[in-house]
Amino acid sequence: MKNNSIEIKNGHGEMIGEAKTFEEYKGAGVFADLLLDRTFKKAFNPDTQNKVCLIALLNAVLEGEIASPIVDVQSRNKEYSDGSNENRTSVFDLHCIDSEWRRFIIEVQILFQENIVNRAIYYASQTIVAQGERGQKYNYELSPVVTVVFMEFNVFADDRYIRRAKLREMNGASICETLNFAFVELPKFNKPLDELETTLDKALYALKNMKNMTLMPKQYANTVFELLFSTAKLAKLSKEEQKMIDEAQKAKWDEYAIHKAAIDSGLRQGHKEGLKEGLAKGLAKGLAKGANQKAREIAKKMLLKNKPVEEITDFTELSEVDVIAIKAALGKS
After folding, report:
1. Domain count, the chain
2. What's the rounded Cα separation, in Å, for the pair 181 and 40?
3. Given phi > 0 = left and psi -120 to 50 = alpha, else beta, which region is 191?
4. Which residue stretches of the chain have pLDDT < 70?
5. How far apart are CA 256 and CA 6, in angstroms?
6. Among residues of the chain, what percentage have pLDDT more than 70?
7. How far from 119 is each of 40, 46, 66, 151, 255, CA to CA, in Å?
8. Within this chain, do residues 265 and 210 fall inside the same structural domain, yes or no?
């Protein structure tokens, strides 16, 4: 989304228009946004034929991190079926279990969440604790818990769009399979349609771009993800589903607008203070208030220009620890 607008693309990835308001977007829409609560859960429902899409998505994202590929999945207990109780325009999740009793938390974050990693650890830990049993004979047998987080914003300093993690030794050797995580930063996935090669490529491209398309690209024909386009086609949804998706999409646009306004307000305030206290200090303060993420991007650019850490901390108001961490992620000595 650029300047509160959405590009409309055909099945070849070519831009054929741009929607600047929700009403314009709604009129041009062919497919529902996969990154809406209702659409995502319908497209990747573990209790319908669409489970094949979920299995393919999880196996692609978790490749090399879980002991064996996922073969079958189903919803976990009813208490999880409705997802998170938090604001649905900001976060929602899907809970399922596979044939090997591994528990999966699939989460979508729409707006910036500063402590996203800690949040994932917190909820995964709750799922671990919930497996405990009372009694003296309990021997701490635990089924693996796998958390996958898709984000419509950037968190980490480098350009990698996927991070996979588990409990490891310092040399990288796995200690156990009990906790597994994958974080996907969708804005960093920028492969064009004609360069999609792997299942992961096709999955992420669909998640990020389906809402902008007017027809299914040929790259998805005869693949498991062909079902995603059929499921998300607005014309096939019931009137009730279309109404709920329209409401969710409008709420998402509103959330983006509010978020952008908060950032712009912080920048303007920083500019005003900069006139009084010095432009650099004022802008840095505005950025810190309105967009911590923007401050990190500025730090990254300054590091690439070999600016000293002290100068960067003065300009961005990031801590020295934060700047050194960004520097390490860039691989600069």
Report:
1. 2
2. 20
3. beta
4. 1-29, 77-91, 135-136, 235, 237, 241-291, 332-333
5. 12
6. 69
7. 21, 24, 21, 13, 21
8. no
Q: Do 97 and 55 form a contact (C-beta atoms < 8 A)? A: no
Last residue of a domain, one of 203, 237, 271: 237
Domain shared by 95 and 36, yes or no: yes
Amino acid at 22: F
CA-closest candidate to residue 88, choices 120, 46, 40: 40
- Vertex 73 angle, CA 35 and 163, to 5°: 55
Asked, for residue 247, whether it belongs to a domain, the answer is: no
For residue 329, the model assigns a pLDDT of 81
Tell me if 242 is assigned to some domain: no
Residue 80 is predicted with a pLDDT of 45
> Domain check: are 192 and 280 in the same one?
no
Residue 104 carries which DSSP code? E
User: What's the gap between Cα 277 and its chain centre?
Assistant: 38
Q: Which domain holds residue 274?
A: 254-329
Residue 48 lies in a domain: yes
Angle at 156 between CA 288 and CA 124, to 5 degrees: 110
